[in-house]
Design brief:
Helix content of chain B: 55-70%
Number of domains of chain B: 2
Number of domains of chain A: 2
Strand content of chain A: 5-15%
Oligomer: heterodimer
Helix content of chain A: 55-70%
Strand order of the largest sheet of chain B: 4-3-5-7-6
Mean pLDDT of chain A: 84
Number of helices of chain A: 21
Distance between the termini of chain B: 81 Å
Strand order of the largest sheet of chain A: 4-3-5-7-6
Radius of gyration of chain A: 24 Å
Structural class of chain B: mainly alpha
Mean pLDDT of chain B: 85
Distance between the termini of chain A: 72 Å
Low-confidence stretches of chain B: none
Structural class of chain A: alpha/beta
Number of strands of chain B: 7
Shape of chain B: globular
Shape of chain A: globular
Largest sheet of chain B: 5 strands, mixed
Order of helices and strands of chain A: HHEEHHHHHHHHHHHHHHEHEHHEHHEE
Largest interface: A-B, 39 and 36 residues
Largest sheet of chain A: 5 strands, mixed
Low-confidence stretches of chain A: none
Number of helices of chain B: 21
Order of helices and strands of chain B: HHEEHHHHHHHHHHHHHHHEHEHHEHEE
Chain lengths: 451, 488
């Protein structure tokens, strides 16, 4: 790869785009005094990382036995460094540059690599994994850089470094191990035999399987739920719908060259299986942007027979991608916990409480920030429903007592979403003999149950 | 020859149109029409449709694609209430002409294409769905098939390009069905690829354009829905998920004659070595709507309407084979051919007519009861009734409903439908009051159809006069709920 001025300019633009996207989320949250770490996935990761002092440990809140892997240990180091916010953004920029460099190394045309990396920077999956740290943040970056070094031709140092990184990723969870085996074996079959790499990756994976006690839980999810998780759909997921469709067309039209990219097809199928059948995150899917960039690049190159359509299509494609990015940025910026929720949960930490009743979406925040247990809303859905809606103290209090609830954590957003003004539980809270308001941070309240 | 062709088509149009006019009744036959009326009134009053609906599901944010409501608003503005009802009849009758032109893409025998157009015009499910209703189905179905027609002609004539773009934009502004049609078009492209054919350049360019246009407009319209719904929410949030493919309703909804001729027509076309693009498009459309119906994205009658029209169009291929065969027979005389046509065409007409007659008109006594509720000027309590009465409640009674057929951004409708049924069928007063408490119900709406549908003769707990008071009875009854769980 000849690193010229043109490539340097492209790289600089991609880095700037990454800073702009991640920086916007950061700036908005800073201006709202909201914590820089947000979203249930991040807090779940932090809690598990803090608990992972040894390979097998028990979660004191949920009483689940958990097997750690090296991603949890790295996450712990990242958290302990005290610069987690800066590290996560740096990792985001590393992902973008690594992905761009990898495409260039594969011989992808400059513009195509540039467009693909730009679509990656604009993808919701990138925003939700790098504006805040998740358990997928570190493995993704190491995976991409591992590939970048490993595919280098005629440079033994880079190849060894790449292999070490890929072996490291294999120890970050069962799905990463399977993905790395697929990549190494697939590349050896389709492009160039790398026997040593295959053997070492297989050995590392086998050791990881044994040492970290890898296991998978069969847990299929409904089809609509799967689509919701994969495609951004105006809110969450990995890919914007425009990028997903472009990628799908790009993937289908690349079918003629399927031998060379069979590994990528298999990785995509694996990620989809991960999500659909095992209800586990499939972060590699965000690299699907490579196909989206491929298709968008070809759109620019196609000679259109109907010129008026050409620029209109470009405009709509651009705005559809941007629209998803804007919504993702806005969702990330307003995601819980906000300042009032964080302050309330910090206050809750020092309160002697048994079980907290709130909303299912606040579980991870209560567990991690307040260090308290919550109600299992799915198991006790009927009881929870009665507590939310009943206006009869004689029905609500016994339900709360049965669930060992001693405190209520009611964020402002939850009250707006779950209750009609002054109805249900909110109506009962007026009763001073049964409930005592402990704190109120800008509408986010903590209530103590007296009886 | 051209004059005869035009005359025949005009006659066909007038036949379908006049039949539709003949079947018009005083009231609508579905409650969604009353939702359209509310939207039209909002447009006439404020210039914009209702998006924050304070009455639906006790109050919810329900964004809409406003195209149909503005169109109906314009019709209402320039015509009487009768014109308001005639417009969907015109849109419905046009399908026979569109069906004719699509069939002409398969054959040069225009007389057989007229028969196909006739079948499309009287497809039973489509007739049932769009008669006496101002919901957007007639416009959406007409625009869908017009888009399909222009797509088929795109490679042949430059004029089709403008038509195709206009139809796509209009359809996108009228209904989220454009998202489904988009998926169908991509299935069609895949279908061609599987057959070793390549999608032609103009069609591919149009597909790319339509993809981003439709995604962009839908994103823009529904952006505030956010994480909860998404694209699948938009598609799946517009119908109650009750579709099943039982044979009898399918044969009744599509018409057995159209079903047989249509499926045979598909088979004959697929066997051809050349020119399979058109039939591939029709098959993709058929498969697409069946899948969407099964996934619950469209209602059974909508699914059968599309299927009926698709099969009507593909039946032209069967007719070509049958008539070619008949011509070879020694006794092939004009009367024989004519009687064959009559034997087929009369039952199709009767099937169409019968299906629309099985659809019950909304009764005056229900409307009067709800109008009485409207005079009470109650803005805080909700009225409970089965989901298919939801829009009538908000239109006539102007009170909140517990549920209606606009499921977009609604709370868990399956639970609500179950709760509504429990409220009517339970014998226990406390269970019923628990439900009334949960949904803030102040009035209970009861008529004979509801009792029949729930297989009950009366609601037992209503005999408790201290909690329930009958405030209206003209056959249709309204009870006021006077207790809550705290008071009993």
């Amino acid at each position: 790869m000849q690193f010229n001025k043109h490539l340097a300019r492209n790289l600089a633009f991609i880095v700037l785009l990454g800073i702009l996207i991640l920086g916007t989320v950061t700036m908005i949250r800073l201006s709202n005094n909201a914590p820089m770490i947000f979203g249930p996935e991040s807090y779940k990761g932090i809690r598990l990382a803090e608990l992972s002092t040894k390979v097998t440990f028990t979660d004191p809140i949920t009483n689940q036995v958990i097997n750690a892997d090296s991603s949890l240990f790295l996450f712990r180091l990242m958290k302990q460094s005290g610069f987690i916010e800066i590290i996560q953004i740096t990792l985001g920029l590393l992902l973008l540059t690594g992905f761009w460099g990898f495409l260039i190394r594969l011989g992808t045309p400059d513009k195509m690599a540039f467009i693909s990396a730009a679509i990656l920077a604009l993808s919701p999956g990138f925003i939700f994994n790098f504006a805040t740290p998740t358990l997928s943040t570190i493995p993704l970056v190491i995976f991409v850089w591992g590939l970048f070094f490993w595919v280098a031709q005629g440079n033994l140092f880079e190849n060894v470094l790449g292999l070490l990184l890929l072996m490291g990723v294999a120890s970050m969870g069962i799905w990463w191990a399977i993905s790395i085996i697929l990549v190494v074996v697939g590349y050896s079959i389709a492009v160039r035999i790398r026997a040593i790499s295959v053997i070492l990756v297989l050995i590392t994976s086998a050791i990881s399987f044994y040492f970290f006690k890898y296991s998978i839980i069969f847990s299929p999810i409904p089809f609509v739920e799967f689509i919701k998780q994969v495609i951004f759909e105006l809110g969450g997921g990995y890919l914007s719908i425009a990028a997903a469709i472009l990628g799908l067309i790009g993937l289908l039209t690349s079918w003629a060259k399927r031998k060379g990219i069979m590994t990528i097809y298999l990785l995509i199928i694996l990620s989809c299986l991960q999500i659909a059948i095992f209800d586990s995150p499939g972060p590699i899917l965000i690299l699907f942007c490579g196909f989206s960039g491929n298709m968008l690049y070809r759109l620019f190159k196609i000679k259109w027979s109907m010129p008026p359509l050409k620029y209109t299509t470009y405009t709509f494609a651009f705005f559809t991608i941007i629209l998803s990015t804007l919504v993702a940025v806005s969702n990330a910026a307003s995601m819980a916990p906000d300042a009032s929720e964080f302050n309330s949960l910090t206050a809750l930490k020092s309160i002697d409480a048994n079980v907290i009743f709130s909303g299912k979406e606040y579980d991870q925040y209560v567990h991690t920030i307040a260090g308290k247990n919550t109600v299992d809303y799915e198991k006790f859905s009927n009881a929870s429903q009665i507590i939310y809606t009943s206006q009869n103290l004689k029905r609500t209090i016994p339900q709360l007592n049965n669930l060992n609830v001693t405190h209520l954590f009611l964020p402002k957003k939850l009250k707006e979403e779950y209750f009609e003004e002054g109805k249900g539980l909110l109506f009962l809270l007026r009763n001073n003999e049964s409930f005592n308001l402990l704190s109120d941070f800008e509408g986010t309240q903590i209530w103590e149950i007296k009886s | 020859m051209r004059a005869i062709k035009v005359f025949t088509l005009v006659t066909l149009f007038l036949l379908v149109f006049s039949t539709r006019l003949f079947l018009l009744t005083e009231n609508f036959t579905d409650d969604e029409s009353y939702y359209v009326l509310r939207q039209v009134e909002s447009i006439r009053g404020r210039g914009t449709p209702i998006t924050m609906d304070p009455l639906s599901y006790g109050g919810k944010y329900a964004p809409v694609l406003p195209g149909h409501y503005y169109l109906m608003g314009a019709v209402r503005m320039f015509g009487s209430f009768f014109a308001f009802k005639v417009f969907p009849a015109i849109a419905g009758a046009i399908i026979s002409i569109i069906g004719f032109f699509i069939a002409m893409e398969f054959t040069k025998q225009w007389k057989l294409a007229v028969i196909s157009g006739y079948f499309a015009g009287f497809a039973p499910a489509f007739f049932k769905l769009t008669i006496n209703s101002i919901n957007n189905n007639s416009v959406v179905i007409a625009l869908t098939f017009l888009t399909v027609l222009y797509l088929m002609r795109l490679e042949k004539t430059k004029k089709a390009f403008t038509g195709l773009i206009v139809c796509t934009i209009l359809l996108t502004l009228v209904s989220p069905f454009s998202l489904i049609l988009l998926g169908i078009f991509w299935v069609y492209a895949g279908f061609l690829k599987l057959q070793g054919q390549k999608i032609k350049q103009r069609s591919f360019e149009y597909l790319l354009f339509a993809t981003f246009l439709i995604l962009f407009i839908n994103h823009l319209a529904f952006i505030k829905l956010g994480l909860e719904s998404g694209i699948s929410g938009i598609i799946f949030g517009s119908a109650v998920h009750t579709t099943s493919l039982a044979w009898i309703p399918v044969m009744g909804g599509v018409n057995i004659i159209i079903l047989l001729l249509g499926v045979m027509g598909m088979y004959f076309s697929v066997k051809k070595e050349k020119g399979r693009e058109g039939i591939s498009l029709m098959i993709s459309l058929g498969i697409g709507v069946i899948l969407m119906g099964l996934f619950g994205a469209i209602k059974t009658t909508e699914m059968l309407s599309y299927l009926g029209i698709v099969l009507s169009i593909t039946s032209v291929n069967s007719l070509v084979v049958i008539f070619d065969y008949l011509k070879k027979l020694k006794f092939a005389k004009v009367p024989f051919v004519l009687s064959f046509i009559i034997i087929i065409m009369i039952p199709v007409f009767l099937f169409g007519l019968y299906s629309s007659l099985t659809k019950l008109e909304i009764e005056n006594q229900d409307i009067m009861a709800l109008e009485f509720l409207g005079t009470l000027n109650n803005s805080y309590g909700a009225t409970i009734a089965p989901i298919e009465y939801g829009h009538m409640i908000t239109y006539f009674a102007k009170t909140k409903n517990v549920a209606d057929t606009n499921l977009l951004n609604s709370p868990s409708h399956e639970k609500i439908i179950k709760d509504i049924k429990s409220a009517y069928t339970t014998s226990y007063e406390t269970s019923a009051i628990n439900i009334f408490d949960e949904y803030g119900v102040l009035y209970i709406f009861i008529n004979d159809h509801i009792l029949k549908d729930y297989n009950i003769t009366k609601i037992n707990y209503l005999s408790d006069g201290s909690c329930f008071e009958e405030i209206y009875n003209n056959g249709t009854k309204i009870y006021e709920v006077k207790c809550n769980l705290i008071s009993i």
